[in-house]
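Write out the 3D structure for:
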Amino acid sequence: MASSPVGSKPFGQARLMPNGSRSAGVTVDHVKSIFPTYSQNNVKNGYEIIEAEFERQVNRLAVNGTKLTGDQVESLRHFTYATVRAENDKFLPKYDETSNQSNTSSPGSANMTLFKYEYLNPGDFVKVPYNKYYRRSLGNESLYDAQTYHGRGYVQLTGKENYSHYGAQAGIPGLVENPDLASSPNNAAKLLVAYILDKRNRQKILDALADDQLSEARRAVNGGLNGLNQFRRAYKTLKSEYVKQLEGIDPGLRDRVQRQIVNSDSHVPPA
């Protein structure tokens, strides 16, 4: 699969981050355009937090020997905001909706499962929707883990192992012991950016975006295709606005960049 060309400078006239990567392109107005009008204040606040965190973590990667090109940085920023749009239309960190449902079914009914007695009270039950999180691949070893480490934040972080790994990557101590920390705006931004820039996910996302395989890019975060239509529309809107902005500086830029991407088979070095 093709990926963004390492070492090339197709957008060389754009503003640079301190580490030399390009940061211009996604403005707060661009991000506002992909969200409903009732979310505009949330967009402004979230944008500022995510931008600061994105720059911090890109610089951290560079210090550790992984310097992303400007084109790669911009694609990942587009992906970041499109991901938030796919997860919810309010631009707010949120809980998995399952956690807000009430336990109203009787013991032994088809949609309930006995819960571990020490979690709440003897006789309490866990909702069957949480059974989907009872997987060793998520680091969940019990139904207690499945309900405790449900989706939170902008990226709907799920599973004990992910809370441990990305909490460390984002620099959030105690996340496993207190998973609700993932729901604050600052921590949600840190986890969102850490997830997208992590070496587990970063190249998979970049390759899918370079090949215009937006469904595969969405799978890198969601694991499935929930919110794909919202993600696709948001990503294409941001990319279109970005290219339009740069073509005003350099006519013909789009065609040259596309040729460079098609002719490249280079990759991002591991962190």
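Residues 115 and 126 are 5 Å apart (CA to CA).
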